[in-house]
Amino acid sequence: MAWLATAWAIFQGLLVEALPFLLIGVAIASLARWLAPGGRWMQKLPRHPVLGPLTGAALGFALPACECGNVPVARRLLAGGAPLGTALGFLFAAPVLNPIVLASTWVAFPNQAWLLAARPGGALLLSLLLASVLPLLPETALLDPALLEERRLNQPLAEVGLLERRTGLVGPATPKALPDKTPRPPLQEVLQHGSREFLDLAVLLVLGCAIAATVQTLLPRSWLLAVGGAPTLSVLSLMLLAVVVSVCSSVDAFLALGFAAQITPGALFAFLVLGPVVDLKLLGLLRVLLRPKAIALTSAAAAVTVLVLGQWINLLLL
Q: Which residues contact 141 (CB under 8 A, 6 or more apart)?
């Protein structure tokens, strides 16, 4: 039963690590819903294919949380009618481009200047790529149906037809224009909505942590680190390790510090850039935003991009 005890210990560690950030994310999303009902400011964010994702990435500095805390905030952005590129740029870049993660990377690797530049640079490049590729899918194939319905409610009639809103607004005569200013919901309603959202996400997080703990127990990290010296295999093995261990981006640099001397620079880069975008714990949470096809596309595009970048870094530094 030793493996069960190990899996339980890993499960507790992942859950305790992620839950506070999930709570912070839900609290920020609920506060935004109360302070800015209707999300008009979100609809004014840049729609430019490059400026939009860059703006979303810059919003990450306002949310010092890991990838788990970013999910409810990204959902609020999408539901509020924010441009797809901006919301996706935030979702994929903010787990690295925030003060806590940048500071933890600097504390863990103070003498590796290349990594202090390569990690945020790689995360930003990856977010720009994903924010460019995913919107190629129709919104019906990209976003979760419940989120898509909520998003269409908050978009102008000039962009979304009444039939697409599916809210009973298709009435007998000429539709009335929506009010310029959405009334602020009662605080009690916002708290109840936030509580339900936290519980829904917490269930998915528990499931993701259980899967990650089981896989991590059955696939010891020592097996993946055994090929740490091979340029290509080391990158691939550390990408797999990042997906399996599912550690939060706020502390993954300290975990990587323990085996950094055994692996190539490209593998270290791959571990620190891929994990905040794709891991077993996060896949369940992404289901409240994206459809399975979009999650698969995200995982494949992120893996290929990180593999190529990791190879380039090995070519330059080895």
A: 291, 293, 294
